[in-house]
Amino acid sequence: MKATTTTTTSAPAHNSMPPPSAPSAGRSSRIAPHSHIKGLGLTPEGLAITDSAGFIGQTNAREACGVIVDLIKSRKFSGRALLLVGAPGTGKTALALAISQELGVKVPFCPMVGSEVYSVEVKKTEVLAEVFRRAIGLRIKETKEVYEGEVTELTPTEAENPLSGYGKTVAHVVVGLKTVKGTKQLRLDPTIYEAILKEKIVVGDVIYVEANTGAVKRVGRSDAYASSYDLESETYVPLPKGDVHKRKELVQDVTLGDLDAANARPQGGQDIMSVMGSLVKTGRTEVTDKLRREVNKVVKGYVDQGVAEVVPGVVFIDEVHVLDIESFTYLNSLLESSMAPTVILATNRGNALVRNTTDIIAPHGIPRDLLDRCMIVKTDGYGREQISKVAQLRANVEGLKLGPGVVERLATEGEKSSLRYALQLLTPASILAQLAGRNQIEMEDIGEMNELFLDAKTSASMIEAGGFADGL
To answer: Is the pTM value of this prediction over 0.70?
Structure first.
């Protein structure tokens, strides 16, 4: 008889993390600055929930971005751009990431910083053009004739090698496939047998073979061979339904940038010298406008035939005021293109001189002709209560426990200096707590962090007061 025991558990603290799931218990994942952002956190009516999807506050900006998402989904945002303006650390990048998540995982999202255009290998306009092309997806739907089923037989038939008096070669291979509806025996070319060996296919695997190209793909192991005590990391799939020979619709997602790169790269020979030469040539090559027009023509033909669908993605350019007047001019022309993605710009500047000019001072450092194309959304600063909620949220995401009064102390530091400074104290303070043998951060840990690390305002005031050496 099996004995049963009853255990009582105390209620978890209000700021404790939920128990980790099975996958995360064995392997820790990297915590990024915006790991807690899961979307815009809007109701079906488009109203912002106060604290939702990782966002604290910013209700006006989130609701405005929700309208932008609806415009993008209805394909009515072409020719325009979204400009996010606000002080550093107010959530501009988080809003851009939330928009991309609201659009879906299949929509390409290409972030960049304004300074990336100043490359020593390619022109500024080429960098912008590449990013725009990578942000335009192409979903290709193709119907193929395939043979699909569980392998029941795999018998190579050998014959005398005509090129040599010794040894034998594979003349053909007999493959038996089984589905729920029936079985079929295939007599395949020896080149397909090489692909079968490469995929490490054995009896009991579920595969499909393309009738036109002879490509072989291993789907997984038949679930008839699965058992509860197997330790191997194997993918078990059910026995395919229908006939062995069937028509199957395959969907492939690529970007226009992928097509440009594939057509621009020289297709050298298959010998070892050609392969080594391609490895040595690591420099970037510019794609000509003529090649892009040819790719667009082919893509348009596929779209007209109904074989492919264009999926406009999102280009996010942070610190857009770093771009110069030539880049802004080219950005204008890219926005007017018939195959332009959604463009989101972000800046924390007020009135600023447009780069590479001497007398053009414009709002946010952006020329007015481009500014007229933008729908501008402003992010607000955070109050004391919102800073405390963000600090608690980040502590939960990072798996940190906070002692009494720590959240209020972090809110005070964030209100006095900046939200980023308050959040940056969390992880170092947890290291001090661990060294002291504690499992939660206490007030003295935050106080010691203030002594070790200065915030930006304190550092600036010490420079003005002569607190640093003259060499700094």
So the answer is: no
**Cβ neighbours of residue 166 closer than 8 Å, sequence gap 6 or more:** none
Q: Report CA torsion sign: 176, 242, 211, 267.
A: negative
Task: Give the dihedral sign, CA 102/363/379/373.
Answer: negative
pLDDT (tens digit per residue) in 85-140: 988 878 888 888 888 888 887 788 888 898 888 877 788 888 898 899 898 888 88
In whole angstroms, what is the distance from residue 384 CA to residue 404 CA?
Answer: 17
CA 349 to chain CA mean position, Å: 27
Cβ-Cβ contacts under 8 Å for 446 (sequence gap 6 or more) = 406, 409, 410, 413, 425, 429
Dihedrals phi, psi of 2, to nearest 5 degrees: -90, 125
- What is the number of other CB atoms lying within 10 angstroms of the CB of residue 412? 15
Q: Measure Cα distances from 301 to 85, 260, 266, 297 in Å.
A: 40, 16, 24, 6
What are the chain's domains?
59-107+313-378 (3.40.50.300), 142-251 (2.40.50.360), 384-465 (1.10.8.60)
Q: Which are the contacts of 299, defined by CB distance < 8 A and separation ≥ 6?
A: 138, 256, 259, 308, 310
